[in-house]
């Protein structure tokens, strides 16, 4: 499951018994060698889809980690690209992976330590993206999270992220993810600090409802590169939530 440069089982165990912030600080140096990093085909598919709807001026990668989504933003944003994450360790690896250079071409790049539930920005972004981070938020936190995203977007700005279809009960992945979530609930019931990471808690119906309540119009775009399920539905979509021009800033 992991490369020789990835974390050992012992290192993963230490991470899992830490808080989310501390756990990712510990994992950061080896994170890009784990399956937790968003796969390149997903990043590339989202980049192609956004290129068809852009360009954008100012972009934000929410919960940017080591910066996988920053590469997507660099391709579709003209003026500036900002990554925000709660883990100083992940940000440090991201900066090292893409060191600052004099701006000869492409957008300005910045890295900011901050909590997605209390973003340190005004309404200055045209595009917010996020990859693989939503499992770190409990369902009850979604209204506040989406209100924060709404508050940093300009009217007409977009919030985009990939949303894979859930595995059917006939798939081994369904039971693997169900088992993982159950193990995390037991861990958080008996151990402090909690480590919030649930793979099955981010459901399309709930997400769409809370985005609309936060002041967004919601559209779904199939990512055709991943094909369709037997029932004809896409295996993966890009969700695009557009801040309504007449909606007041949230916060």
Automatic annotation (TrEMBL):
Keywords: Methyltransferase, Transferase. It comes from the Bacteria. Residues 60-157 form the Methyltransferase domain. One of its GO terms (molecular function) is methyltransferase activity. InterPro entries: Methyltransf_25, Methyltransf_Superfamily, SAM-dependent_MTases_sf. The keyword Transcription regulation does not apply. Pfam families: Methyltransf_25. GO terms for biological process: methylation. SUPFAM superfamilies: S-adenosyl-L-methionine-dependent methyltransferases. PANTHER family: METHYLTRANSFERASE. This is Class I SAM-dependent methyltransferase. It comes from Streptomyces phyllanthi.
